[in-house]
Specification:
The chain is mainly beta. It has strands at about 1-5, 10-15, 20-25, 25-30, 30-35, 40, 50-60, 65-70, 75-80, 85, 90, 105-110, 115, 120-125, 140-145, 145-150, 150-155, 160-170, 170-180, 185-190, 195-200. The strands form 4 sheets. Strands 4, 5, 7, 12, 13, 14, 18, 19, 20 and 21 form a 10-stranded antiparallel beta sheet that branches. Strands 6-15-8-9-10-11 form a 6-stranded antiparallel beta sheet, with no helix packed on it. It is globular. It starts with a strand and ends in a 9-residue tail after the last strand.
Length: about 210
């Protein structure tokens, strides 16, 4: 039979005379879909040594902020209209409108040196200033939007499919967010490092 603890479903079974509880695993998906009004707080605050790799399949150019955080001239964000922010510098060389295939599946890798879109690297248009890490919840990366002082940007949104997300720090993988369905049927993402589920915080739906 099934029992629930927090948001996790556990199985109850007997091994001999001993009652054993086993947590159910998430059902991993290839991708989840954002509707432009949905976003996830990764709870990860980037630094000047942070790199992010994400595969997406957008179906709209509106907003099209895949993920991001920051205010004023201190931003770490990935747009797909040639506007990738790192500190006070942006990149205008990697734009999906210039990529053969348009809104088909795309892979972005962004770090302090620039942006690699589908294997083609584009440096920032100027020498990047260092992104200043701020260990505060207001500066965690939002997935599917940009975190502006603890709130999702009203302009920076994402509509489309989102696949696995990898976060590196000094070249070491520190987060791996995987699309999934949790044991009680909620579409979300699961990080294999923190062993946590990360849920939609927006007014829209993840599907």
């Amino acid at each position: 039979s099934n029992l629930y603890f927090n948001d996790k479903r556990i199985s109850r079974a007997y091994m001999g005379s001993k009652l054993v509880y086993k947590e159910r695993e998430p059902i991993f998906l290839d991708y989840i879909e954002f509707d432009g009004n949905s976003y996830i707080d990764s709870e990860y605050c980037p630094s000047s040594e942070t790199a992010v790799e994400v595969t997406i399949e957008p179906n709209s150019e509106v907003g099209i902020c895949v993920l991001g955080v920051g205010t004023s001239n201190n931003k770490f964000s990935s747009y797909l209209t040639g506007y990738y922010r790192f500190g006070d510098t942006y990149n205008s060389g990697a734009d999906i409108s210039d990529v053969q295939g348009g809104y088909k599946r795309q892979t972005i890798y962004q770090d302090k040196t620039g942006v690699t879109l589908n294997g083609v690297h584009s440096p920032y248009v100027a020498e990047p200033t260092a992104f200043t890490a701020v260990e505060h919840p207001s500066y965690s990366i939002y997935i599917g939007s940009r975190n502006d002082n603890g709130n999702p940007s009203t302009l920076a949104k994402y509509i489309g499919r989102m696949y696995d997300i990898y976060v590196y720090e000094n070249g070491t993988l520190v987060r791996h967010y995987k699309p999934c369905i949790n044991p009680v049927g909620v579409v979300c993402m699961y990080d294999t490092f923190t062993k946590k589920y990360y849920y939609n915080k927006g007014t829209g739906k993840l599907t």
